[in-house]
Write a structure and sequence with these properties.
With 109 residues, the chain is of the alpha+beta class. The protein has one domain (2-107): Dimeric alpha+beta barrel (Alpha-Beta Plaits, 2-Layer Sandwich). The protein contains 4 helices and 6 strands, in the order βαββααβββα. The longest helix has 18 residues, at 15-32. It is globular. The protein starts with a strand and ends with a helix.
Length: 109
Amino acid sequence: MTLFAVLFEDDRQNAAAIRKDYLQRHFAFLQVNAVSIRTAGPLGREDETFAGGLWLVEAETTRDVDRLVKEDPFWAAGLRKSVQVFQWDQVFADGVLLSPAGKTDRLNS
């Protein structure tokens, strides 16, 4: 399995109304998919408005991540303006430098 960082940018038009109407469905979706969506949360702006969201997803392929993105009620409702998916290797956590097995070549690049 691979970890992916998924960055969402929200469409500012009608974002507050969409969030209000779909938030509970979005939370239910996250819970149902908790095996794959390891962590999720909103991204904010300095003026305290939402900018988008961030997920860390464990999946086999980017196609699997894309499927999850498109099943999210926020996506179907038109909240998301864009999405970017990146492979992610955790190398530092809780003050400790990690040495991920098999990933050291990318660290030295």
